[in-house]
Amino acid sequence: MNTKGFIFIIFGATGDLSKRKLIPAIYNLLKHGKLEKFHVFGISRRPYSGEKMVDTALEFIEKLDPEPDPGLIKRLKENTTYFSANFTHEQEFAQLKNAIDKLDKTAVYDRIFYLATGSNHFDVISGNLIKTEIAQQKNCKTKVVFEKPFGRDEKSSKKLNDVISETFTEEQTYRIDHYLGKEIVGTISVLRFTNRIFEPIWNNAHIESIQIKLDENIGISERGAYYDTYGAVRDMVQNHMIQLLALLTMEIPDSITGKGLRDRKAQVIKDMVVRDALLGQYRGYKQEKDIPQDSKTDTFAALNLEILNSRWAGVPVFLRTGKFLSKKESKITVKFKKVKCLFDDDYSTEGNILEIRIFPDEGISLYVNTKTPGEKRATQVKLDFCYTCLFGENTPEGYENLLNDVINGDQTTFTRFDELQNAWKVVDPIERIKIYPYEKGSDGPEEMALFNERNNLKWS
Ligand code: BG6
């Protein structure tokens, strides 16, 4: 149990992230005994209340805990205060400062500022925090968490980072990527580096291709204004997908925590180049709330990437993500080359496949060849590890892990600026000349057939 007190200050408190992820994560931290003394301050423009922040989060809390503890919900409500303020106005920070000072007279609570707003507000909020001295306290630690995407391209992210680093040190700065908080994603490094059956063959001599699919069957909900500024490549590829790929392809780090890991990720991202891309937009997108009639924003992206280093040159990497596709599926597939052996004349074998499922059916499967009974033929069978069957449903959720890491000052699962900057360099050159339409509920634009053909690709 952490007996220290924590104040969470959420900017953008009426948004989707606060109700879907942050408040439920705080509930779970309480439930799992990882938080004792705390207070949540929510800030956004529109009239709202602390109670409403918890009430609107309830349906998402119930996804983690079908029967929420009424005592914990009551505590959460009693410890949540909302301010309606325009956070671009310095003078409007005064009431927040007064409330925090009143609650924490001796300034002993650690303060965690969570910027769950578009990155276009990051610099002005950081500046106001300093000007009003809310973020400078002698007795307590101040940490600041920035939601992704960090900037909109390399140039704007660099500018943003320069401003932020005038205010906060790197040790105080947590750039979040919630995929890194998922338990199964944390398994990737352990799987690669602690298993002799994988580590020595994790290279272009043995691996044929890599696929990462983050398909979604939902649309943009109420997030039109945010989404249209970014689109699929900036919302999913630049961060979640490139981070997953970095974990899969980085060189062996000195340790799988802290600096070593972040150095290795930054290094491999630098070697990534996009070879082919196809972008799409679902039909009906321009009729969504807050979307301009002439929007050219991508809601679908399929990419072929190569990693130009001696370990990976020649191995195609395929990424695919999109809104309103046929189903929600987040999956990594590593295809190994076929073994060339004497048997081949008699037995037709397949290359091994390693599948890491993030959603649904969280788990890992390995496909291997076995003899078909009574025949001189191989059959590929699946060796399966089901995460929840073994560890139970109640494993910590991504945001709970990440908030816990912020509380404990562990930056391993947060991205450093050089990683993000290199990732922008990978996606910035993608041409946006043509955005192909696709039907809701499909697997993307019809032109995907050509993309698949020219890249000799079959999606797993
Ligand atoms: C967020 C994106 O980072 O990830 C959303 O902004 C997307 O657009 C979400 O829906 C997907 O996350 P998950 O964990 O549900 O796969």
Automatic annotation (TrEMBL):
Gene Ontology MF annotations: glucose-6-phosphate dehydrogenase activity; NADP binding
Residues annotated as binding substrate: H178, K182, E216, D235, K323, K328
NCBIfam families in the cross-refs: zwf
Keywords annotated in UniProt: Carbohydrate metabolism, Glucose metabolism, NADP, Oxidoreductase
Organismal lineage: Bacteria, Pseudomonadati, Planctomycetota, Phycisphaerae, Sedimentisphaerales
Glucose-6-phosphate dehydrogenase C-terminal domain: residues covered: 190-459
GO terms for biological process, alphabetical: glucose metabolic process; pentose-phosphate shunt, oxidative branch
Pathway note: Carbohydrate degradation; pentose phosphate pathway; D-ribulose 5-phosphate from D-glucose 6-phosphate (oxidative stage): step 1/3
Catalytic activity annotation: D-glucose 6-phosphate + NADP(+) = 6-phospho-D-glucono-1,5-lactone + NADPH + H(+)
Role according to the record: Catalyzes the oxidation of glucose 6-phosphate to 6-phosphogluconolactone.
Enzyme Commission numbers on file: 1.1.1.49
Family: Belongs to the glucose-6-phosphate dehydrogenase family.
Organism whose genome encodes this protein: Limihaloglobus sulfuriphilus
Location of the active site: H240 (proton acceptor)
Domain Glucose-6-phosphate dehydrogenase NAD-binding: 9-185
InterPro entries registered for this protein in UniProt: G6P_DH (IPR001282), G6P_DH_AS (IPR019796), G6P_DH_C (IPR022675), G6P_DH_NAD-bd (IPR022674), NAD(P)-bd_dom_sf (IPR036291)
Protein name, per record: Glucose-6-phosphate 1-dehydrogenase
GO cellular component: cytosol
Residue numbers binding NADP(+): G12, A13, T14, G15, D16, L17, S18, K19, R45, K148
